[in-house]
Amino acid sequence: MVTAEQVWDALDEIADPEIPVISLVDLGVIRDVSVDGDTVHVEFTPTFLGCPALEVMKRSMEEKVSALGAHAEVEVVQDGSWSTDRITLAGREKLREAGFAPPAPRAAGTTTLVQLQSAVFRCPYCGSTDTTLENIFGPTPCRSIRWCQSCRQPFEQFKTI
Amino acid sequence: MSERAQQILSIADDELIVGWRDSEWTGIAPTLEEDVAFSSIAQNEIGHARALYELAAKELGTDADALAFDREPAEYRSAQLVELHLLDWAHTIARRYLYEEADRLRIEALTTSSDAELAGLAQKIDREEVYHRLHAELWAARLREEPRFCEAVEELWPYALGVVEPELRGELAKRVGLAEVAANERNGRSPEFAELWETMTEVRRSAPGAQW
């Protein structure tokens, strides 16, 4: 019989379809894994509701569990439980190495424009905090575009949600 | 249909249609930044619609796509504000601003609903909407003194009131800083809806029952 630990390890091999440097486990979207005989129950909580990668992620999880000889039941939980604070430390480091600035920690209250324009955002290339907000929106729902004044190039900033 | 399903469908229809209308700026917005912003906002709004339709579909025994695309025009519950086909930027920004203010009120109210599933989804939507509100607030602040923008806000105001239930309208008026007037209610389709529906459902209607 498959163990929950084996399932977690297998799910950790699934790369995020849009940012393949980080795994679904590092992204924090797997909320729980439980094993009941040949059935593996996975609680999955999406990042952004409009993320087009949801179906791909779901299918990848089912395939990984099948490869372990079990049957996956993926439950999609659509509540407020996922936030960018669920991205693991290892995941944040992988994002930075790949040129995506990891999200700032969630502050009490909602994100304000003043926070987005402040200097807490570090350039993933040169480490400078002399960066400015270019566009709240970017190539996918989870990213904004910032500009580094120091090394003079744009970079993608994970939105804090 | 239960009151719950009707309420969820009203919000889902608003989100789908506003996402559709916002996406009409993809490729033709006045600046590239706004092209990206409107496309991204549209994607989020349609994502919210999908999640809300899924919730309603569980209760109604159908699926999200059927609710989004297989209903007759008269069965949609969208507010007239989102149905309007707006061709100029002042009106488009006025709608984004007014819609976000109205949407924020009803979503905030739902986050504390005793219906745990609905409250959970509202909390998730609320988090994502923060970025739409920032975008709308930035534009509203920038255009506040512009006569064209002010006229557009005034023109769309009765439509904005129709987005929320009567008990939230006083609060909406307070937040927007306008006097409460008679609302354009969501019980009738705007003239522009027919054309939108034709286009939006065309592919599904071309092959009924097909698996995509």
What does this 3D model show about the protein?
- The complex is a heterodimer of chains A (about 160) and B (about 210).
- With about 160 residues, chain A is α/β, with parallel strands linked by helices.
- Helices cover about 25% and strands about 25% of the residues of chain A.
- Chain A contains 5 helices and 7 strands.
- In chain A, the strands form 2 sheets. In chain A, strands 4-7-6-5 form a 4-stranded mixed β-sheet.
- The longest helix of chain A is centred in the middle third of the chain and has 14 residues, at about 55-65.
- Chain A is elongated.
- Chain B has 10 helices and no strands.
- Chain B has helices at about 5-25, 30-60, 65-70, 80-85, 90-110, 115-145, 145-160, 165-175, 195-200, 200-205.
- The radius of gyration of chain B is 17 Å and the shape is globular.
- In chain B, about 40% of the residues are buried.
- The interface of A and B includes residues 111, 137 and 141 of A.
| Average of per-residue pLDDT values of chain B | 95
Give the overall shape of chain A: elongated
Oligomer: heterodimer
Number of strands of chain A: 7
Radius of gyration of chain B: 17 Å
What percentage of residues of chain A falls in helices of 4 or more residues?
Answer: 10-25%
Give the number of DSSP strands of chain B: 0
Strand content of chain A: 15-25%
Tally of alpha and pi helices of chain A: 5
What structural class should be given to the helix and strand makeup of chain A? alpha/beta
Task: State the end-to-end CA separation of chain B.
Answer: 28 Å
The N- to C-terminal Cα distance of chain A equals 38 Å
Question: TL;DR of this structure?
Answer:
Chain A has 161 residues and is of the alpha/beta class. Chain A has five helices and seven strands.
Features:
heterodimer; A: 161 residues; alpha/beta; four-stranded mixed beta sheet; 24% helix; elongated; B: 212 residues; mainly alpha; 10 helices; globular
